[in-house]
Amino acid sequence: MATNNANGAVQNGFYKLSWMQRIGFGSGDLAQNLIFQTVACYLMLYLTTVLKINPAFVSGLILGVRLLDCFWSPIVGRYIDNHNPKLGKYRAYLLYGGIPLTIAAVCLMLPQAATWSSTMKIVYATVSYTLLSMIYSVVNIPYGSIMASMTRDNDEVLKLTSTRMVCANIGQIIVQAGFPIGLAMVLSQAIDWKQAMFMAIGTIPAFVILPALPVLKKLFGKKGLYYVLLCIGLVGFIILYVIGKFFNVAECNVIVQTAKIMTGVGLLVGSLMWALVPEVITESEYRTGNRPAATVNALAGVAFKAGFSVAGFITPLVMGWVGFNFAEEKSSLATDPSAWFTVTSIFAVAGFLLLLFCFKGCQERIATTPEKPVTFGEMFKEFKANKCLQLMICIFIVVFLASFISAPVNAYYTKLADYNDVAKEAILWFTTIIPAALLILVGFLIYKYPLTDEKLDEMNREIEARNNK
User: Fold this and answer.
1) Are 439 and 234 in contact (CB under 8 A)?
2) Alpha carbon distance 37, 35 (integer Å)
3) Could you tell me if 63 and 299 are in contact, meaning their C-beta atoms sit under 8 angstroms apart?
4) Once rounded to an integer, what is the mean pLDDT over residues 135-147?
């Protein structure tokens, strides 16, 4: 049986964490979201409306970089699992990768690029986005591994996840609402509050639901909670479709914003999926005796980015096919390149300061380095053997595809009346119909997920018993 030590932490791996430790860990996700959400929500718009790059090329660029990441992330995960830096097996990379990540983010939207030739713009966009993506993995993969190294206690993992996701959603709302507001402020223009609110209001449920996760989980059960959230989101997407199809969006602002909040409830399942990562790591350790935290996080990151990349590939390509030209249509955001650079730079520098805070606030307790290096063959073997990992990856891809497929097009929904019938229909498909269908698929995949809390507790106790022999 585990016992409490003098500091109140439970021994044998089932550690209890302080709120400062939880917030310190969560600040890392806030930091990364200041950069990631900028890319997810606004990079496509920047490349097509500010640099005027062909949407078909932008579509291919986003997909190409993500395909590269499918190879790069496992390399990063394997390297991290096989090494143990003096500053911390995982948290050291918050410093090692944080500085180049900040520089790459600042260089992503250089104002001078708008004056370059079309060829130079394409080269610049390719190099800057590729470098940013690769460096981001060097920070994001070990950061995700920190959670599995802090405690084995499932309740503590849930609290860590909820704290992390609250911080992530703070970053999301800062960027989604703050970017258009920041552009307007830099240019001394009037702020379109309706648009800014619509872009960000879907994150509001996170600040209510995530802190209440332990209570909601006891009330509905793990899977039951997922189903409730998905159903609320599905209803929200239906309402948005009906309003956009048959009514004037501008005249139904209260209903529209309410429905957007409901869709945020459904998409919040994506945030909760990160709680599955420590579970899959535990299941792997139970079977093999190794704890491949960085490798599993790398694969989860690939799946997460796969959903994001497919969304980034499909959206500009299909919108272009139906005749919606991002470069020629009236932009919903200011297109001054200096303003885009200024706002992006502010988010990047703030993110680096938060990474420093995360580095100081995290404490790794359960981190092992294999006696012999993990090979790529062993990683593939583990992927084939780990059914939970396979299912988790499928869930990640679908839920984050649902989250990001509408992100850039959301900027156009509030001004739906300004576009022709074909463009309106395309906007509605990407902001309502496709995400709704994907949420239904997420529900089916969650139904198939086999790990229960009781099973995980049993696994953790047996692992600790083995380690203490």
Assistant:
1) yes
2) 6
3) no
4) 88
